[in-house]
Design goal:
Layout: H1 3-16, E1 18-19, E2 26-27, H2 30-147, H3 177-184
Antiparallel strand pairs: 1-2
Helix pairs in contact: 1-2
């Protein structure tokens, strides 16, 4: 049985006991108390054995951890030696990479400047063409305005007004004066 459980049972037994009025003493059931104490005596060696097993296991884990640590340290030393050898090659590669990057930046700047110059030239040429075309259009408008008077604008009929209906015309014959005189006589 677990020692902690037995201690709890003993504590419960004391709590259940009768307190003597005016004193700090408590009357407990002696037989039950002795039974719990006997169980504790039996459990204590078990607990000690458990603790001893835990200590042995701890010692074994520590020994394994020390072996693992020694192995890791050895690997780290080997890796550091390899890395020192590679360090010089890495430094040389970094220097070469720096030169290549610098050359690429210079070339990119040169290409960008050339492209900007080309675009600027094309835009200026387009601006000149548009200005010439605009001048020609304005001249054409002026010539047209001077040659012909403005056309009158047709009056638009409102949509809500009906169209006029054409009336049928009667043909009236006009009498000549001679016929007119004959009719009056």
């Amino acid at each position: 049985m677990d020692i902690q459980h037995l201690v709890d049972r003993l504590e419960d037994l004391i709590d259940e006991g009768r307190h003597l009025f005016g004193t700090k003493y408590t009357m407990v059931d002696e037989e039950r108390a002795l039974e719990i104490i006997d169980q504790m005596r039996i459990s204590i060696p078990e607990e000690i054995e458990k603790a001893a097993r835990v200590l042995q296991q701890r010692d074994r884990v520590l020994a394994e951890a020390n072996e693992e640590a020694a192995r890791i340290i050895q690997q780290a030393r080997q890796q550091s030696e390899t890395m020192v050898d590679q360090h010089q090659m890495v430094q040389q590669a970094k220097v070469r990479a720096g030169h290549v990057i610098e050359q690429a930046k210079i070339e990119a700047k040169k290409i960008t400047n050339e492209a900007d110059g080309y675009v600027l030239g094309q835009l200026k040429e387009l601006e000149n063409q548009v200005a010439r075309s605009l001048g020609e259009i304005r001249n054409g408008i002026e010539v047209m305005q001077q040659e012909s008077p403005p056309e009158p604008k047709p009056m638009a009929q409102p949509l809500h007004m009906p169209r006029p209906v054409e009336l049928e015309r009667e043909t009236v014959e006009i009498d000549t004066p001679a016929q007119f005189n004959d009719q009056q006589q």
